[in-house]
Amino acid sequence: MRDIVDISIVGAGPAGATAALVVGQTECRSLLIDEQRQAGGQVWRAKDRSILSAPATPESRSGDNLRERLAASGVSQMTDTRVWQIERQGEHWVIHTLRNGTAGRLYSRAVILATGAREEAQPVRGWTTPGVIGLAGATALFKQSIRLPGRASVVAGTGPLVFFVASEIRRLGGTVAAVVTPNTRADWLARLPSMMARPDLLWRGGRWVADLMLASVPIYWGHAVKSVSGDDRVIGVTLCRLATDGTPLPGDIGIAADSVCLGGGLAPSIEAAQLAGVAVRYRPDLGGWVSEAESDGSTAREGLFLAGDSCGIRGAVAAELHGQIVARTALRHIGQASASDPALERAYRRASRFGEAMTALSVLRADPIGLATPDTVVCRCESLTRRAIEDEIESGAVSSNAVKSGQRAGMGPCGGKYCQSSVARLIALQENRALSEIAPPTPRPPIRPVPVSALAGDFDYGDLPMPKPAPL
């Protein structure tokens, strides 16, 4: 007999974990599933055991508080678990998992997907050189291991994350060779009215910038990294100034460094929702392609709800509040009395205004593919260059699915997370079409790598009844 959960929550970041806490206050059976060993997601990532005595930060305090509340709530958790398929079977949702090398299935009446966001790659010459990491990857090093990306780092990217990473490098004793951002001072001033919705966060961001300026760290406003120098290690970067339309201007600037933190903004993680049958739409103001859901998290798929950044990048504060709203929606779906909370919804709208202002700043002014040379690697998993992808488009592959089929772009271990945005931009550029017309590729299971041995289980080919060869 199947063991059926009332509500399963996939993702234990700000949205998923807070949704689990709301559901956990009821008598319904719930389960919180996450890939990491402890809840918290990227924003509230738990410290490694070796650095538990390290000074607390606002993020570590929030994460510790969340994990304590989850432990006290008695919410069932399945951590260190990879979800690689989700599908509807009859009246229930089936979640396919991989845990400790073993494949399993979970059955649930309702599912809340809180899969968060992923970092956009910015392919430039040399971006695959050892010593180049993403801004989000750098924050993981800080929060989990208190490790620096290098001795002297160039930090490049959009929005507030670039200043957070640079400030953390300095706080941990590292050297910031330069901060490079396509944003201009005017871009930030234009978003100031919306940012006033959260003066505490605005003040914190102001402190990051002030710290860098007082330390005489050069900040290159309206610039982008054009290339990374070095063969087996980073030795420096080349910058270029950007025109108002984002195109590079003449006059390169060279900076010596042994590491580069390079980010291209955030994009919603929509693959799990797509696999479950949720449609997507193009919203560049919310990070690109987003899953279609109502503000209360409900979707066109019965019993499937979306929470947090997978519906659009609005930041951790908004995601935390949205998780609570969506949990109430899911509870009502399974017949649990759970009234809406107007005060909570107002707080969510207020936090969303701030988060959407940050997302607007995180959208690249420069077309990231415009800085890629013909020999620049665009798909790291398959070592595909810009030239190879453009040749495939020239041959008639004018959709993401077609390029994926012809050149395997997006069929590697990352599942296209690092290359599909760039592939779409190349198609739009070469075909003179809008990005909104270049839909992401159709998702196929597994959405996360799964070893064949785990799917085979105890199956033994020796047990097959093989007939003897026919006599000659």
TrEMBL record:
- Lineage, top-rank taxon, reads Bacteria
- In Pfam terms, one family for this protein is Fer2_BFD
Q: Which SUPFAM superfamilies match?
A: FAD/NAD(P)-binding domain
* UniProt keyword list: Oxidoreductase
The BFD-like [2Fe-2S]-binding domain extends over 377-428
Q: Which residues cross the membrane?
A: none
Quote one Gene Ontology molecular function term: oxidoreductase activity
Q: Does the keyword Protein biosynthesis apply?
A: no
- The FAD/NAD(P)-binding domain covers 6-322
Q: Which InterPro entries match?
A: BFD-like_2Fe2S-bd_dom, BFD-like_2Fe2S-bd_dom_sf, FAD/NAD-bd_sf, FAD/NAD-binding_dom, Metab_Enz_Cyan_OpOx_G3PDH, Opine_Oxase_asu/HCN_bsu
**Name of the protein described by the UniProt record:** D-Octopine oxidase
